[in-house]
Amino acid sequence: MHFSRNAAPNSPDDEGAVMNFGFDETEQEFQNAIRRFALERMLPEYASWERGRELTRAWTSEIAELGLTGLRVPEQYGGVGASYVMAGIAAEELARGDLNMTFYIQLSAIAAELIGGHGSNELKSRLLPQLASGETLLAFALTEPGAGSDAAAITTRAVHEDDTWVITGEKASISFAGVADQTIVFARMSKDGQEGLGALIVPMDSPGVSVRVYDGVGEKFSKRGSVMFDEVRVARGQQLGEIGSGFIQAMKAFDFNRAIIALTSIGAAQQSLDETVAYARERKTFGKPLAMHQGYAFQIAEHSAHLETARLVAYKTLWLADHGLPHTKEAAMAKWLGPKCAAEAIHACMILNGWMGYDEALAHGQRLRDVIGFEIGDGTPEIMKSVIARQVFGREFASHK
Ligand SMILES: Cc1cc2nc3c(=O)[nH]c(=O)nc-3n(C[C@H](O)[C@H](O)[C@H](O)COP(=O)(O)OP(=O)(O)OC[C@H]3O[C@@H](n4cnc5c(N)ncnc54)[C@H](O)[C@@H]3O)c2cc1C
Description:
The protein is an alpha+beta fold and 401 residues long. The relative contact order is 0.11. It has helices at residues 25-42, 57-65, 84-98, 102-118, 121-133, 246-282, 294-322, 328-352, 364-376, 381-393, and strands spanning 138-141, 157-161, 164-174, 182-188, 197-203, 209-213, 225-235, 239-240, 284-285, 288-289. Strands 1-4-5-8 form a four-stranded mixed β-sheet, with helices on one face. A four-stranded antiparallel β-sheet has the order 2-3-7-6, with no helix packed on it. It has a two-stranded antiparallel ribbon with strand order 9-10. It has three domains: 12-133, Butyryl-Coa Dehydrogenase, subunit A, domain 1, CATH 1.10.540; 138-244, Butyryl-CoA Dehydrogenase, subunit A, domain 2 (Beta Barrel), CATH 2.40.110; 247-397, Butyryl-CoA Dehydrogenase, subunit A, domain 3 (Up-down Bundle). Residues 3-10 have low confidence and may be disordered. The radius of gyration is 21 Å and the shape is globular. β2 (157-161) and β3 (164-174) form a beta hairpin. α3 (84-98) runs antiparallel to α4 (102-118), α6 runs parallel beside α8 and α8 runs antiparallel to α10. It has ten helices and ten strands. Bound molecules: flavin-adenine dinucleotide (FAD). Flavin-adenine dinucleotide is lined by residues 140-143, 148-149, 173-175, 219, 224, 373, 376-380, 382-383.
C-alpha cells in the first residue's frame, strides 16, 4: 500500500506526490492467496477450536510453511522479511477464515522484532530460524494480576545470581500460555519504575514454571492463561537488550501489533458482512430481497463505511512503521476503532441474518466472542484514547506518564 510513492507525508517535498491507496501487484497476489487459503482451509475448521480441538504441531507447521510465522523474521534467518503492510494483509485475510490464526502472526512478529532488535547474535541465530519454521512458539508475558493497563507497575522480579537470572512472579492472561515453548517475560531487574524493567526469554519447560489455562469467552484456540515463575533460573544470555529497555521494547511491539489486531478484527467482520450481503441478495421478505429494504441496506452501508475507515488508519499505521515514521497515535486509533467497529458490525450481522444469525451453524456468534477479546488485549479502548489524547495535547497534559 502506498500512501505517497515519492516522499514522506508532510515533508516539504511531497507536493504533487502520487497518492495511491492500492496494494501493488505482489501485495495483491499475496492477499488473494491468503484469502483463498483462509476460506477454503480455515473457515470450515473455525468452530472446532471452540469444541475442544487441540492445537497440534502439524497445524502449526502448515501455517509456518506459508511463511506466516516468519513474516517479520529477516531472510538471513530463514524468514520472509516482509513489510509491516504485508503482515497486516496476512492478518486481515487469515481472519476471514479464522481470526485465531493471526495469533501466529502477532506473537511471532512481536518475538521477531524483540529478538531481532535487542537479542544477542547467539539468540538471533538460535531462535529466529526456529520461530520462522514454527519449531518454537513464543508467548509475550507482560500483564500481571495487579498490573495490566499500568504495565510499568509489574512486580515480577529477576534477581541476578552469578551467571543466571532468577525469576519470581506471576503473569496473567498470556496468549499461547498453554502451548508456547518459550516466553518473553518482562520483569523488574533493578530499581522501581520503567527504568528497572527488562525482558528475558524463558523456556516454558524450565523448573519452576507452571501454567493455568483459562476458560475464555472466546479465542479458546489461543490457550490463554496465567504463567507462574517460582525461582526460575535462566542464563544471562537469555536477556533481551539492556536493563531499563524493557518498557520501551514492550511499547514498540504494541505499536505495530495494535494495527495487526485492528486488521484481524476487520477481516473477521468483513467476512460476516460479505456473508450477510450474499444472504440479503437471496432472502426475500414482503415480496423483495432484503437488500432492497433501505432500513436493511443502510445498516450494511454504515458498517461497510466504519470498517473501511478503520482499515485505512490501520494500514496507514503499518505504512508509517515501514517508513520508520512515528505511528503511536495512529496505532492507538486503529486499535480502538478496529475491534470496536468489527464487534458492532458482527453484532448487526447476527440480527440481519434472523434466527440463523443466532445459531452456531453460522460463524457470527463465535466471531463476536473472539473479536471482543481483541478490544481488551494489547490495550483497552480507554487506554487507546488516553494514548491518542496524550499525542494530541502533549505529554504534559497526560493523566499518567
Ligand atoms: C484476549 C486477550 C489476550 C491477551 N493476551 C495477552 C498477552 O499475550 N500478553 C500479555 O501480557 N497480556 C495479554 N492480555 C492482557 C491485556 O493486555 C490486559 O488485559 C489489558 O492490558 C488490560 O489490563 P487489565 O486486564 O489488568 O485491566 P485494568 O488495567 O485493571 O483495567 C480495568 C478497566 O479499567 C480501565 N482503566 C484502567 N486504567 C484506566 C484509566 N487510567 N482511565 C480510564 N480507564 C482505565 C480499563 O480500560 C479497563 O476497562 C490479553 C488480554 C486479552 C483479553
